Amino acid sequence: MMNLLHWRLVVAVADANNISRAAEEIGMTQSGASQAIAQLEAALGFPVFTRERRYIGVTALGEQVVAYARSMILQLNAIRSLADQSRKLNGGRIRLASFPSVTSTFLPRLLRDFKRLHPGIDVVVLEGTDEEVEEWLAQDTVELGVVMNPAPGRAHIVLGKDAWVAVMPARHPLAGLARASGITLAELADQPFILATGGCLVNGQSLMENAGLQLTDVRVKVRDWVSACLLAGEGMGVALVPESALPEELRGLCVVPVAPSLYREFGLVCSQSGNASAATQALLKGLFSNK
Fold first, then answer.
1. How many angstroms separate the CA atoms of 136 and 218, rounded?
2. Average pLDDT estimate for 205-231
């Protein structure tokens, strides 16, 4: 059965000439996108795309399909814009405060889906530390803020959670056993330590203090999570970082879970102006329906 997602995928592939980039653009996996295109072509009875080694082209009939699909999506967006206009949402602007690790991992797909549903509403993302986000919310500078570990009942929507992991050189004496059973904060506390903060109050040091422990040998302090991982790979020490902040290349590193498990949770919190904003409430409603 062909649906709107298929047609969005058709347009995205035609624009990118690449299935992987198109899949990422509309929030699908590459395998799911490839399967969807195969199903669509089987339903149509002719190929829409030509496949070469690293390039996806469009057939002659495919060009017509892409044109119709593009027109269909534009017309649908116009209908949605008309609906937003009737509810006085068009021209709305939402300022959303977040910190980098969430901006790059949890928000993109959610905001992309919202933009499709409400093309007339602009969402402006402001990045800062967790302290700055709280300050902007309190000062009513933003309508929404991503808050780390919000108090129960404070967040309108919980976006997700992120596990803390220990990063150490692959040949570290603790690495072998830790791979199998995880590692405790107590085992990490006395190790040469790379303290990464990510610009947040919740970091390796605060996790230790909350557990009644102290770091005894902080060798270096950095802001960036990836920098801490690179330094760990050079044998400078061990680090505690959020799992979502790990670099793509883990060669020379051992990454193990903290035992018992520790998580940081992210929730969306409204400011006073956000509670009164129709556009902001539409965003929250849209995110809630996708949860």
1. 32
2. 93
